[in-house]
């Protein structure tokens, strides 16, 4: 019996009991048939329509045939690995959320996956019930997030057009992931205020639980893209023992 079969029997009466999926489509990409089958059954019981893919090329083909509402993506895949699949999906559709499946020892790959734009991750071996809850949480915050009022945020040479979701520095467009852009918008809207990592997880990711190192990774990536010297940041500052705050490099209303 695998680690995934035992939780299925124990949790079957409670996982997804509310049937909250409402026909939303989920693409599950994993080369382990046992994992795929358990995840499929849990998600279908929660009301989701599930498509399975066993490798990278099959995942990309399935995505092309029908754009899902969410992708559950294992990082260790034959053919094309999960990181490359994630990168390719992000070039096709930034708005489709991705939940990664990673092994305990794959911290570097997990960090890279978050940098490429994955929205959440679950570490193997995992409880299928937890995975369903993560899927529900990611979809809920994705589908219910209100569209922000169009505005342009400017700080010196840094400029964010929230309507078109374009960021530029000194006139050069920046390549930001969805979460990097959202985090930067949030920080720039609240200059001078220190936020705990948990507060940023809640405000930007919509997570009431989760690994707070996600915030650290995204802050580091933002610094590499918007700071003159990422090792001595001027905009996104660390508040030791708390989290981060954004400091304008120009006075409000300055250029």
UniProtKB/TrEMBL annotation:
Tell me which residues form the DNA-binding region. Answer: 150-248
Q: Which residues form the OmpR/PhoB-type domain?
A: 150-248
Q: Which GO terms describe its biological process?
A: regulation of DNA-templated transcription
Q: Enumerate the PANTHER family for this protein.
A: DNA-BINDING DUAL TRANSCRIPTIONAL REGULATOR OMPR (PTHR48111:SF4), REGULATOR OF RPOS (PTHR48111)
Its Gene Ontology cellular component terms are: cytosol; protein-DNA complex
> Does this entry carry the keyword DNA-binding?
yes
- Positions carrying 4-aspartylphosphate are 74
- Full protein name: DNA-binding response regulator
User: What keywords does the record list, in alphabetical order?
Assistant: DNA-binding, Phosphoprotein, Transcription, Transcription regulation, Two-component regulatory system
Q: Which GO terms describe its molecular function?
A: phosphorelay response regulator activity; transcription cis-regulatory region binding
Residues of the Response regulatory domain: 25-139
């Amino acid at each position: 019996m695998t680690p995934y079969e035992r939780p299925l029997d124990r949790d079957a009466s409670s996982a997804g009991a509310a049937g909250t999926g409402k026909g939303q489509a989920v693409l599950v990409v994993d080369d382990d048939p046992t994992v795929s089958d358990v995840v499929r059954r849990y998600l279908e019981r929660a009301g989701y329509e599930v498509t399975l893919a066993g490798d990278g090329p099959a995942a990309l083909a399935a995505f092309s045939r029908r754009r899902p509402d969410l992708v559950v993506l294992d990082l260790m895949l034959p053919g094309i690995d999960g990181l490359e699949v994630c990168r390719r999906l992000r070039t096709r559709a930034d708005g489709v959320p991705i939940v990664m499946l990673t092994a305990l020892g794959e911290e570097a790959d997990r960090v890279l996956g978050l940098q490429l734009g994955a929205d959440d991750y679950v570490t193997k071996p995992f409880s299928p019930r937890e995975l369903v809850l993560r899927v529900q949480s990611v979809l809920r915050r994705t589908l219910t997030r209100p569209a922000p009022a169009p505005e342009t945020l400017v700080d010196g040479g840094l400029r964010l057009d929230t309507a078109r979701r374009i960021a530029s520095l000194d006139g050069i467009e920046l390549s930001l992931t969805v979460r990097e852009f959202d985090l930067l918008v949030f920080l720039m809207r609240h200059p001078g205020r220190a936020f705990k990592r948990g507060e940023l997880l809640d405000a930007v990711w919509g997570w009431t639980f989760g690994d707070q190192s996600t915030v650290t990774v995204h802050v580091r990536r933002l610094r590499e893209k918007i700071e003159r010297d990422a090792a001595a940041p001027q905009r996104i500052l660390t508040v030791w023992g708390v989290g981060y705050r954004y400091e304008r490099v120009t006075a409000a209303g300055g250029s």
